[in-house]
Amino acid sequence: MWLKLGRRLGSLIIVMFLVATMVFFLTRLAPGDPAALMLGDQATAEDIARLRQVYGLDKPILVQFLLWLKEIATGNLGQSIFLQRPVIQAIAERAEPTFFLALFSVSVAALVGIPAGIASAVWRGRLVDQIVSGLAMLAANIPSFWLGLIFIQLFAVRLGWFPVAGYGEPGAPFMERILHLALPATVLGIVNSALIVRFTRASMLDVLSDDYIRTARSKGLSEARVVLRHAFGNALVPIITVVGLTAALLVGGAIVTETVFGLPGIGNLVVSAVLRRDYPVIQGALIVVAGIYVLINLLIDIIYTFVDPRVRY
Question: Domain ABC transmembrane type-1 spans what residues (predicted)?
Answer without folding.
Answer: 95-304
